[in-house]
Every structure is written in structure tokens, then in C-alpha cells.
Design a protein that fits this description.
By secondary structure, the protein is of the alpha+beta class. It contains 6 helices and 5 strands; from the N terminus they run E-H-H-E-E-E-H-E-H-H-H. It has a 5-stranded mixed β-sheet, sandwiched between helices. Helix 3 links the parallel strand 4 and strand 5. Helix 1 packs across helix 2. The radius of gyration is 17 Å and the shape is globular. 20% of the residues are buried.
Length: 169
């Protein structure tokens, strides 16, 4: 099956949001998705974007039953690690179930790796759920390593009222 991977454009935001919701539904977490199409347009396609996105699409002849051609995406942003320098962080990586096993997920991840290397990054970082064995196996097959145990690090978050409280002088 032919597919292409390219940098997302602002007009892709409606499909990106649809794919985000599909991912969240598959994780049984759709109720926590508050991002809107407008948020994506503002945050990913402004002069100083907070994230970047790559989409996978198929031709019209391979579109889904719902006539959709955007069938996967990944988000990423650049970061800085004071121990090693430039890094790239991959957020979501999602391919619609009926298109999995065709190299699309690898192509999306490969594009992020290419962009990271072109920007002088030394690492590609990302997180996955500990229960998602198929995702873990996929990433291990790509040559990634699980550094959870060796780093002894926990992924932390501060949001809502706690973030507001923390921001007070």
C-alpha cells in the first residue's frame, strides 16, 4: 500500500484532532481530551509553535470507509538536556488500526528521527504506558531502549490549581 509522510499543515488540524480523539478512545481516556482544532492551529502553526506534527496519508484509492485519507500522525518538539544537549521529544504516535503493520508507524517515527538529526539532536525521547506491551515491542524493534529502571526517574506533572499555586510568588 502506498502512503506518504509529510509535515502537517494548518488545514490538517481537523484530521489531527480526529486522530487524537481516536487515540484517546483507544486508551479509554477520551474524556480528558480538551484540545480543540483552534488550539492545534494556534499552538502548532504560529510564529513560535509549541509543537510540530507529521501526518501519514493515503491516496484517495486507499482512503478509509469514511473517505478519510489522513491515517496517522506524530507530534514532536525540540528540547534541551543539560547533560547531552539538543534532544527531540516525540509525543503521540498513532496509526489507525486498519493501517497498522504496513510500516506507517515506523515511517512517522523515522521522520521525527530525521528531523532531530538534521537539527543536531543527540536523542529521541518519548514515553509510553507501562501496560502497552505492543507499543513497547514496536519501539524495541526500532532499536530503542527502555531506560525507566536504569535512570530511576519518575515522570511528574503539575497542573490545574497546583500549577496556579506554584506560579504564585
Amino acid at each position: 500500500m502506498e502512503f506518504s509522510v509529510r509535515a502537517a499543515r494548518v488545514e490538517d488540524c481537523k484530521d489531527i484532532r480526529r486522530l487524537i480523539l481516536e487515540l484517546a478512545e483507544s486508551l479509554k481516556d477520551a474524556d480528558n481530551v480538551t484540545i480543540t482544532q483552534r488550539d492545534l492551529e494556534r499552538d502548532g502553526f504560529s510564529e513560535n509553535p509549541f509543537f510540530h506534527c507529521v501526518v501519514a496519508e493515503v491516496s484517495e484509492q486507499h482512503r478509509t470507509k469514511g473517505s478519510l485519507t489522513k491515517i496517522g500522525y506524530t507530534t514532536y518538539f525540540y528540547n534541551y538536556n543539560t547533560w547531552c544537549g539538543r534532544t527531540i521529544h516525540m509525543g503521540d504516535l498513532y496509526v489507525m488500526p486498519e493501517f497498522r503493520g504496513k510500516g506507517i508507524g515506523r515511517a512517522l517515527m523515522s521522520k521525527v528521527a530525521q528531523l532531530g538529526l538534521a537539527a543536531g539532536c543527540h536523542q529521541l525521547n518519548f514515553t509510553i504506558f507501562d501496560w502497552n506491551k505492543s507499543a513497547q515491542d514496536f519501539y524495541l524493534r526500532q532499536g530503542c531502549i527502555d531506560i525507566t529502571a536504569s535512570t530511576g526517574k519518575h515522570f511528574m506533572c503539575c497542573k490545574g490549581e497546583a500549577l496556579e499555586h506554584l506560579a504564585r510568588p
